[in-house]
Amino acid sequence: xxxxxxxxxxxxxxxxxxxxxxxxxxxxxxxxxxxxxxxxxxxxxxxxxxxxxxxxxxxxxxxxxxxxxxxxxxxxxxxxxxxxxxxxxxxxxxxxxxxxxxxxxxxxxxxxxxxxxxxxxxxxxxxxxxxxxxxxxxxxxxxxxxxxxxxxxxxxxxxxxxxxxxxxxxxxxxxxxxxxxxxxxxxxxxxxxxxxxxxxxxxxxxxxxxxxxxxxxxxxxxxxxxxxxxxxxxxxxxxxxxxxxxxxxxxxxxxxxxxxxxxxxxxxxxxxxxxxxxxxxxxxxxxxxxxxxxxxxxxxxxxxxxxxxxxxxxxxxxxxxxxxxxxxxxxxxxxxxxxxxxxx
Amino acid sequence: xxxxxxxxxxxxxxxxxxxxxxxxxxxxxxxxxxxxxxxxxxxxxxxxxxxxxxxxxxxxxxxxxxxxxxxxxxxxxxxxxxxxxxxxxxxxxxxxxxxxxxxxxxxxxxxxxxxxxxxxxxxxxxxxxxxxxxxxxxxxxxxxxxxxxxxxxxxxxxxxxxxxxxxxxxxxxxxxxxxxxxxxxxxxxxxxxxxxxxxxxxxxxxxxxxxxxxxxxxxxxxxxxxxxxxxxxxxxxxxxxxxxxxxxxxxxxxxxxxxxxxxxxxxxxxxxxxxxxxxxxxxxxxxxxxxxxxxxxxxxxxxxxxxxxxxxxxxxxxxxxxxxxxxxxxxxxxxxxxxxxxxx
Lengths: 344, 344
Description:
Oligomer: homodimer
CATH topology of the largest domain in chain A: Phosphoribosyl-aminoimidazole Synthetase, Chain A, domain 2
Number of strands of chain A: 12
Number of helices of chain A: 10
Radius of gyration of chain A: 20 Å
Order of helices and strands of chain A: HEEHEHEEEHHHEHEHHEHEEE
Strand order of the largest sheet of chain A: 7-9-6-10-8-11-12
Distance between the termini of chain A: 27 Å
Helix content of chain A: 25-40%
C-alpha cells in the first residue's frame, strides 16, 4: 500500500476541497435556483417570495467542546449560527430541522438544557422545529441544523454583487468571539473573572444573529453584497472577492473593536489585528455599499439601531487581492482565517 | 458524582427519547404545516403544492461500516434512504443538501467515488445538490442528507390515516437487506459467493427507493396510510399504530420472501420470520388500503409495475397491539425492530 502517495483531504484544505468538489453541485440549475456559493441556497417559492435553505454540521472537538460549553449555550448557539446565514441574505427564518447523534452516556438533563437554550432563541425569532433525526453516536456529539427561511426576491442580498469602489462595512464589533474563545481555552472562565472577560466569553457562547439588521439592510437598494462574519473577515472577504471577482482593501485603524477586547488584548498580549481579522464567529454582517450612498445609509442605520455602521474598507478592482492598510501604509498580517480541514 | 443514578440516553431508548423530546417539536404549528411524526415534514408551497422535507444523519459504525461498504455504494445509499422518505409520502424529490464530516486521512479518490455513486441515483431521480456543509471529523465519517421534495396536497399519504379493517400491503420483498447485512458481517462478500448471496448483498448496499410506486399509490384514493420500510415492519407498523391509534395483525405466511433469502436462510439457519419482520432497510413501501378496494388496487399495481402487491395483514381496532399469526394461529416473535440508541 502506498498510502503516503495518495492525495488525502488534509492535503487539499477546505478551499481546495470546495474547489474540487463544487463541480458536483454546479450542474445547470433551473432559473431562479441558487446552489452553493452563498450563505443560503435560494429556491423560487410563490410570486416574488423565495425559499432560503442553510445547513451547518457541528461536531464535538471541532466546532465546540462539549465538556466546556454548557448545554444551554450549545442549544442556543447551534441555532444562532444558522440563523446568521438567513440574516446574511436578508431573510426571515421560519422552520428548523435538527439532527443529533448522542453518545449513550449523555444525561437526559443535559439534553433538556440543550433544548431549553434552543427554545430561548427559537421563540424570539419565530422558528418552529419541524423535524430531524436522532441516533446514538459511537464517538462524540454531532449536530446538524437546517433552517428554511423566506425572503422577498427583490430584497435578497448575495456575496456576488460587490462592485469596485463599494464601501465595506460591518454591523458589529470584530474579534470579541475569538477573544472569548481564547479566554475559554486558557481556562479563564473557571476562576473569578473580570466583567470584560465575562463579556467576551458570552459573546463567544451567545452570538446574536443580526436578523433585523439583515432585513433592514437588504431593503436598502444601496446595499450591494452581504454575508455574515463566520470564519473571520479575512476568510469571509475572500469569499466576496471570489464571488464578485474583485479585490478588497481593509483599513485596520477603522475596525470596530470593543473596549472589552482592547483591555483583554493588552492584558494577555494578543495581537489585536489578528484577533479582529482572523478570529471567527462574530456573526455580525459584512456588507458592501454604493460609495456615494454610504453616509446616508450609516445615518439611517444609526436611527434604526442606535449604533454606527463602521466602514472598514473598500472594494478594489484588483482581482482576488486582499490588502491591509494602517494609516495609509500597506501592512502584512501573518494569520489567515480558519480552515475546517487542516489540523492546527 | 452519582452518575450511575442520573438518567441517560441509553436508559430511554429511541422510542423513549422521541416520546420525551417530541414536546419540543409539538408546539402549535400554523395550518397546513406538519412537523415530526411522519416520513417527511410538510409545508404549504403554492396552491395545492406542498413542500416535503426529510433529513437523515448517517454515522460510521452506526449506520454503515466505512471499511466495508464501497464509497460508490455509500454515496448511492445515503441518497437512496432519504429519497425513500419522499416516496413514502407520494412526493417528487427535487433538491438535496449534503453535510459531510471527513476524517483527515480520507483519500480524495474515495470521495470521488462517493460522489459518483450519489450522482448515479441523483441523475436518475432528477435531484439537484444545492448545498451543504463540509468539515473535518476527529472521529469517523458523518453524513447528513436533507431532501426537499414536492407533492400535490391532495395526493399526500400519511402514517395517521389507517382505519380498522384496512388491508396492510408492501411493495417489495421483506428481509433481503437484513440477509445481505448478515452475509456482510459474516465476511461472505469477500470470498467467491453464490448468486443468491450476491443478490442479497446488493439489496443491502443498493436499495431502490420506490418513488414511482409511491406516486402511483398516493394517486389512488383507496390507499389510506403509507410509510417506508426502514427499521423493519415490526418497528414501522408500530409507528402506524401509534399515529393512527389502531392495532395490526400480520399474517406471517403471506410475507413476500425472495427465493434468494429463502435459500440463504436455509443454508445459514436463519429464522426467516425474524429476518423478514425485524430486519430493516428494505426501503419498499408499507401501506394500508380500504379493504373492499384492495383486489382492484393490486390489479392496477400489477398492470403498472408487472409484479404483485402482497397483502401481509390487516388493521385492527385494538389499540397499539401488534399480533402475528401463522395459518390462523397467533404466534410470539422474539425480536423487535432496531433501536438507534441501545447497544446490541
